[in-house]
Amino acid sequence: MYRMRGYDNNYQNVSLNGFVVNDIESGAPYWSNWGGLNDVMRSSMVSSGPEPIGFLFEPVGGATRINTRASEYRSGIKAVYSLSNRTYRNRAMLTYSTGLMDNNWAVTGSYSRRWSERGFKEGTFYNANSFFLSVEKKINSRHSLNLTALDAIYQRGVAGGSTQEVYDLSSDNFYNPYWGYQDGEVRSARVRSNNKPLITLAHFWEPSDKLNIQTTAGYWFGKSGYSALNWYDVLDPRPDYYRKLPSYYYDESDKALITDAWQSDPTVSQVDWDHFYFANRKNIFTVYDEGGIAGNNVSGKRSKYIVEDRRNDLSQFQFNTRASWAATSSINFTGGLLIDLYRGHKFNVIKDLLGGDYWLDVDQFAERDYPNNPDAYQSDLNNPDNTVTEGETFGNSYYAHQRGATLWGTGRYTGNRYSLYLSAHARYTAMWREGLMRKGLFPDNSLGNSEKLDFPTWGVKAGGDYRFTGRHMIVFNTLITTNPPLFRNSFLSPRTRNTATPELREETILSGDISYVLRTPAVTGRLTAYYTRFLNQTEVTSFYHDEWRTLVNYAMTGIDKENYGIEAGAEISITSELSVNAVASVGQYLWVSNPAITITQDNNSTVLSNEEVWIQYFRQSGTPQTALAAGIEYNSSRFWWAGITGSYYDEIYLDFNPVTRTKDDTGYYPFWEYQKQTDPGFLLDIFVGKSWRIDDLYINVSANLSNILNNRTFITGGFEQYRYDPEHPDLFQPKVYYYNGFNYFINFSIRY
C-alpha cells in the first residue's frame, strides 16, 4: 500500500547471493518468488536510497542484498506454525542448519507449507510449498563454494476490485467478482500460479586480508501463470460486467429489478460455472479444413467459454563478479561486472474447456471487422482454423529477449569526521521480440525477430556524511543516471506484432537527498529531505475503446515525473523497557509534463491519433502521499513485549484514464482538471509476544492484530476504467480496493 518516496518498485534492486531477482520485463522484484522461506532470507543488507552497500550500482530506490551462505546460519533446528486470516490460513515451516562442521561443510535446508481454503475474501484459496537448500564447502581459509537452490511453488485464488455500485449492491466492500459455485464447491476463475526454481553457485575468495572477491553464476527458469475466463460470441460472463448493473439501464423499473436480483439472489453476483458447461455442451459445430488441411473436418462441442492460463515462462542466466579492496585504512574500492541473458515466453494455454471438446483459435475482433477475409482473423496463418484442446497454446505466443552487461565501480574515503564516496556504472542493453505465430492481421510483421533495440546507459552518484560529534551527523546523496526502457513498454502490442513504440528513448533520473541523524542514549532520530526528477519515461497500455469499437494501444512518451518530500522518524526511550516512536512521510509525487501520445488500432496498426495527454501536475497513484504513524512499545526484562501503533494515510489518488484527458477534435480536454482522490484512513494495530528458554530449547509466541477498529471503509487505491461514455459517465465507475477489516497473524516457533 505504501511505496517509499512514491517510487515504483522497479527502482529497487534485490539480489540473492549476487543474482539479481528483479523481473526483466517489468523491472520489479516479486517477493512471492521466494515466499514462505522467511527463516532463511533474513540475512540481508538494505538501503532505502542510492547510498552504496557494496553491490552493483544501487538505484534511486535502494537495494536489498540477501545472503544465503550455509555456513552463516545458526546451527540447529527451528519449527514454526502460524495462523492467520489474511492471504492464507495456515503456515508451517521447518528449517535445519548444521553450521560449519569439522569437515568444512555446511548445509542448511528449509521447507514451508502455506494453505487455506479461503483467505480474507471469498473465492481466494492458497496452496503453496516452498523449498530451500544451501550447501557450502570451505575449501581452505581463502576459498569457499556455496550452492543454493530454491523454489516457491504455489497456486492461489486472486480477488479483484470492483466499482462502488457493485460493493453497494452486494453490501460488501470486500466483494470478489472472480468466483462462483460448481457442484457445491467454491471455484475461482482467477488463479495465479508459480514454479520457478533458482540455482546459484557462488565462489568466495579472499586473496589477502585487504581483498575479497565474490563470483556468482546463476540460472533461473520455470513457469508462472494467471488464469482468466475467455469467451466467444456471448455476453461478457463476469458478474460485475457493466451491462448487468442497474446503472446501465435508464428505466427505473429495470433498475429496480436488477437491484432486487443482486440483493435477493446470491448467484447473480457469482460466476455461473453451471451455465458455461451447459452452453458448451449444446454448441455442436464443425470446423472445415482444420489446420489448413483439405478434408480435415472436425466436429464436436465448440466451447463458447473457457478458462485460459496466461503464461509467462522464463529462462535466465546471470554471471556476476565483484571485488572489494581496502587500499588503505581510509580508502576502499569496490567494483564488478554483471552479465545477464534473458528469454521470456509469453503465451496463452487452454486450462479448461468447461465441458467442450475444443476451442477454435481465431481473433473474434478481427472476425467482426473483416468477416469476408478469413485470413485476417487467424491467430496463426501457418496453422489456420486451428482447434485447440486443454494444455495447448493458442491466441498469442512470443519470446521476449534481453541481453545486458553492466560495469560498475565505487570508491570511498573515510576520515575521522567524514566520509565521501563516488560511484559510476555503464550498461549496454539489447532487446527484441521473437514472434512464434504468424498473425493474420500482421502476416509480415509478427513471425520471427523484430529489430534489435539497443540502449547504452550510464550513471554517476556521489555522497557522504559528516559527523559533528558521535551523536550528530549529516548524510547526503546525489545521483544522475539513465535507464533503458522496460521491455513491457518497448513494443506497441507484443501480443500481435514486432512494432516498436514510437519515440522510444532512455529514461533519465536526477536525485538528491540530505539527512540529519541524531543518536543519543534516550533519543534516536532521522530527518530527510529528498528530490527526484524522472525524465523521458514511456508507458504503453492496451484496452478496448468503445468509440472506435476496437482494441487500441496507448503509447505515452516524454513522461516527466517529480517526487519530493520530507521523511522523519524518531524513537524515544522513556525507561529501559518503555519506548515511543513516530514516523512521518509527507511528499508530492507528480506528473509534471503533458506526455505525447500515439494511439494505434490494434487490429490494423492504423494510427488513430497523435496528440498529448493533459495531465500536468496530476498526482501519481498507488501510494499515499502523506503517511503518519506513532506507537508505544514495552519490552519486559521477563521476555515479553507488547505495543500499539496508530497510522494515518492521506492524499491517495486513483490511477487516471488518459482517454478522458486526451485532446479531441475540437481541442478540448474534457476532464483535465479533475483527478479522483480517496478519503483518508486511520488504522490501529496491536502486537504482543512472549518467549521462553528451557535449557537449549527456545519457544516464542507472538501475535499481530491489525486494524483492530475494523475500519472497513478505507480505500487503498484503484483506477479509472479505460472504457468511458461521455454521455453516460456513471456507466464506467472507477474500480477501487478496500483495506482488509480486522485481521491477525499468530506465530508459534520452537528452536533447538
Counted by DSSP, the helix tally is: 4
Q: Please outline the major beta sheet.
A: 26 strands, antiparallel
Q: Summarize model confidence as the mean pLDDT.
A: 94
Radius of gyration (CA) equals 28 Å
Q: End-to-end distance, in Å?
A: 36 Å
Helix percent reads under 10%
Per DSSP E runs of 2 or more residues, the count of β-strands stands at 39
Class by SSE composition: mainly beta
- Principal-axes shape call: globular
Low confidence ranges? none
Approximately what portion of the residues adopt beta-strand conformation? over 45%
Quick synopsis:
With 752 residues, the chain is mainly β. The protein contains 4 helices and 39 strands.
Question: Describe it for me?
Answer:
By secondary structure, this protein is mostly beta strands. The chain has a 26-stranded antiparallel beta sheet that branches. A hairpin with a 2-residue loop joins strand 11 and strand 12 (185-188). The protein contains 4 helices and 39 strands. The protein is globular. The protein starts with 12 loop residues before the first strand and ends with a strand.
